[in-house]
Design brief:
elongated, mainly beta, 3-stranded antiparallel beta sheet, about 0% helix
Length: about 180
Protein backbone atom coordinates (compact mmCIF):
# COMPACT_ATOMS: atom_id res chain seq x y z
CA UNK A 1 0.00 0.00 0.00
CA UNK A 2 1.02 3.56 -0.83
CA UNK A 3 3.97 2.33 -2.90
CA UNK A 4 4.42 2.99 -6.63
CA UNK A 5 6.67 0.54 -8.52
CA UNK A 6 5.47 1.31 -12.06
CA UNK A 7 6.67 4.88 -12.68
CA UNK A 8 9.67 5.20 -15.01
CA UNK A 9 12.55 5.36 -14.48
CA UNK A 10 12.23 2.26 -12.35
CA UNK A 11 12.40 2.56 -8.62
CA UNK A 12 10.21 2.39 -5.57
CA UNK A 13 8.36 5.68 -4.89
CA UNK A 14 5.49 7.01 -2.84
CA UNK A 15 2.08 6.63 -4.49
CA UNK A 16 0.35 9.68 -5.95
CA UNK A 17 -3.21 10.34 -4.78
CA UNK A 18 -4.81 13.05 -6.89
CA UNK A 19 -1.86 15.37 -7.52
CA UNK A 20 0.00 14.80 -4.24
CA UNK A 21 2.33 12.09 -2.95
CA UNK A 22 1.15 10.22 0.13
CA UNK A 23 3.24 11.16 3.20
CA UNK A 24 4.67 7.67 3.86
CA UNK A 25 4.75 4.04 2.80
CA UNK A 26 6.39 0.76 3.74
CA UNK A 27 7.44 -2.25 1.73
CA UNK A 28 8.44 -5.64 3.16
CA UNK A 29 10.73 -7.72 0.97
CA UNK A 30 10.34 -11.40 0.32
CA UNK A 31 12.68 -13.81 2.11
CA UNK A 32 16.24 -14.38 0.94
CA UNK A 33 17.78 -17.70 1.97
CA UNK A 34 21.51 -18.41 2.09
CA UNK A 35 21.18 -22.20 2.38
CA UNK A 36 23.27 -22.37 5.57
CA UNK A 37 23.63 -20.36 8.77
CA UNK A 38 25.24 -17.06 7.80
CA UNK A 39 26.20 -13.74 9.33
CA UNK A 40 24.32 -10.83 7.76
CA UNK A 41 26.74 -7.92 7.97
CA UNK A 42 25.68 -4.68 6.23
CA UNK A 43 22.77 -3.09 4.41
CA UNK A 44 23.24 -0.81 1.41
CA UNK A 45 20.85 0.95 -0.95
CA UNK A 46 20.73 3.30 -3.89
CA UNK A 47 20.48 6.10 -4.38
CA UNK A 48 22.61 6.79 -1.33
CA UNK A 49 21.09 10.23 -0.75
CA UNK A 50 17.59 11.62 -1.17
CA UNK A 51 16.03 14.95 -2.08
CA UNK A 52 15.76 17.19 1.03
CA UNK A 53 12.42 16.66 2.73
CA UNK A 54 12.30 12.96 1.83
CA UNK A 55 13.65 9.93 3.63
CA UNK A 56 14.39 6.24 3.08
CA UNK A 57 15.20 4.04 6.07
CA UNK A 58 15.16 0.33 6.87
CA UNK A 59 14.71 -2.35 9.47
CA UNK A 60 15.98 -5.91 9.02
CA UNK A 61 14.72 -9.26 10.30
CA UNK A 62 16.51 -12.61 10.13
CA UNK A 63 15.94 -16.12 11.44
CA UNK A 64 16.66 -19.80 10.87
CA UNK A 65 13.07 -20.97 10.26
CA UNK A 66 11.56 -18.49 7.73
CA UNK A 67 8.62 -18.07 10.12
CA UNK A 68 9.33 -15.40 12.74
CA UNK A 69 10.00 -11.86 11.48
CA UNK A 70 11.02 -9.29 14.11
CA UNK A 71 12.21 -6.19 12.26
CA UNK A 72 14.87 -4.23 14.12
CA UNK A 73 17.28 -1.34 13.66
CA UNK A 74 20.95 -0.89 14.54
CA UNK A 75 20.44 -1.05 18.32
CA UNK A 76 18.49 -4.33 18.13
CA UNK A 77 15.06 -2.79 18.82
CA UNK A 78 11.98 -2.10 16.73
CA UNK A 79 12.29 1.60 17.57
CA UNK A 80 15.37 2.36 15.45
CA UNK A 81 16.18 2.35 11.73
CA UNK A 82 19.13 1.98 9.39
CA UNK A 83 19.35 5.45 7.88
CA UNK A 84 22.81 5.39 6.23
CA UNK A 85 23.75 2.99 3.42
CA UNK A 86 26.63 0.69 4.37
CA UNK A 87 25.66 0.53 8.04
CA UNK A 88 26.69 -2.59 9.98
CA UNK A 89 23.73 -4.77 10.92
CA UNK A 90 22.99 -5.62 14.54
CA UNK A 91 24.88 -8.66 15.89
CA UNK A 92 21.62 -10.61 16.34
CA UNK A 93 21.63 -11.20 12.56
CA UNK A 94 24.52 -13.66 12.96
CA UNK A 95 23.96 -17.40 12.44
CA UNK A 96 20.71 -16.83 10.52
CA UNK A 97 19.63 -18.43 7.29
CA UNK A 98 16.76 -16.19 6.13
CA UNK A 99 16.61 -12.41 5.90
CA UNK A 100 14.06 -9.74 4.96
CA UNK A 101 14.11 -5.98 5.02
CA UNK A 102 11.37 -3.45 5.51
CA UNK A 103 11.77 -0.15 3.65
CA UNK A 104 10.17 3.01 5.02
CA UNK A 105 9.69 5.92 2.60
CA UNK A 106 8.45 9.33 3.66
CA UNK A 107 8.18 12.94 2.58
CA UNK A 108 7.39 16.21 4.35
CA UNK A 109 6.52 17.86 1.01
CA UNK A 110 3.63 16.28 -0.91
CA UNK A 111 5.13 17.43 -4.22
CA UNK A 112 8.29 15.27 -3.95
CA UNK A 113 9.04 11.60 -3.27
CA UNK A 114 12.05 9.58 -2.21
CA UNK A 115 13.19 6.95 -4.72
CA UNK A 116 14.68 3.56 -3.96
CA UNK A 117 16.28 1.67 -6.84
CA UNK A 118 18.48 -1.00 -5.24
CA UNK A 119 18.88 -2.75 -1.86
CA UNK A 120 21.67 -5.10 -0.86
CA UNK A 121 22.33 -7.09 2.30
CA UNK A 122 25.83 -8.50 2.59
CA UNK A 123 26.46 -11.78 4.36
CA UNK A 124 29.24 -14.22 5.18
CA UNK A 125 28.59 -17.94 5.13
CA UNK A 126 31.41 -19.97 6.64
CA UNK A 127 34.89 -18.62 5.98
CA UNK A 128 35.03 -19.20 2.24
CA UNK A 129 32.99 -19.04 -0.91
CA UNK A 130 31.88 -22.45 -2.21
CA UNK A 131 34.79 -24.17 -3.93
CA UNK A 132 37.43 -22.18 -2.05
CA UNK A 133 39.72 -23.46 0.67
CA UNK A 134 41.94 -21.69 3.17
CA UNK A 135 45.00 -23.32 4.75
CA UNK A 136 45.89 -21.62 8.03
CA UNK A 137 49.20 -22.21 9.75
CA UNK A 138 51.42 -22.57 6.68
CA UNK A 139 54.90 -21.11 7.01
CA UNK A 140 56.34 -18.63 4.50
CA UNK A 141 59.30 -19.76 2.38
CA UNK A 142 58.43 -23.43 2.84
CA UNK A 143 57.46 -25.81 0.03
CA UNK A 144 54.23 -27.80 0.22
CA UNK A 145 52.45 -30.32 -1.99
CA UNK A 146 48.83 -29.51 -2.82
CA UNK A 147 46.57 -32.27 -4.12
CA UNK A 148 43.05 -31.43 -5.30
CA UNK A 149 40.64 -34.29 -5.88
CA UNK A 150 36.94 -34.86 -6.31
CA UNK A 151 35.19 -38.09 -7.22
CA UNK A 152 34.65 -38.21 -10.99
CA UNK A 153 37.39 -35.66 -11.75
CA UNK A 154 41.08 -35.94 -12.59
CA UNK A 155 43.21 -35.23 -9.52
CA UNK A 156 45.45 -32.16 -9.82
CA UNK A 157 48.74 -31.82 -7.92
CA UNK A 158 50.78 -28.68 -7.35
CA UNK A 159 54.29 -29.59 -6.19
CA UNK A 160 56.15 -27.66 -5.05
CA UNK A 161 53.87 -24.93 -3.76
CA UNK A 162 56.10 -22.29 -2.21
CA UNK A 163 54.38 -20.03 0.31
CA UNK A 164 55.32 -16.36 0.16
CA UNK A 165 52.66 -14.26 1.86
CA UNK A 166 48.96 -14.38 0.99
CA UNK A 167 48.37 -16.25 -2.24
CA UNK A 168 45.50 -17.39 -4.42
CA UNK A 169 45.66 -20.28 -6.87
CA UNK A 170 42.99 -21.25 -9.37
CA UNK A 171 42.90 -24.97 -10.14
CA UNK A 172 40.64 -26.39 -12.86
CA UNK A 173 39.36 -29.97 -12.50
CA UNK A 174 38.46 -32.01 -15.60
CA UNK A 175 35.86 -34.78 -15.54
Amino acid sequence: GNVDVDTAPTGLRLKVLGSDYVPSATLESSSFVTGAPSDFTTITWEPTSQVPGTEVKFQVASNIDNLTWNFIGPDGTAGTYYETPGTTLHASHAASQYVRYKAFLSTTDDSITPVLSNVGINYVSGCNTPGQVIFPGLTADNDYELEISLSGYTTQTVDPLTISGNQAHEIFLSP
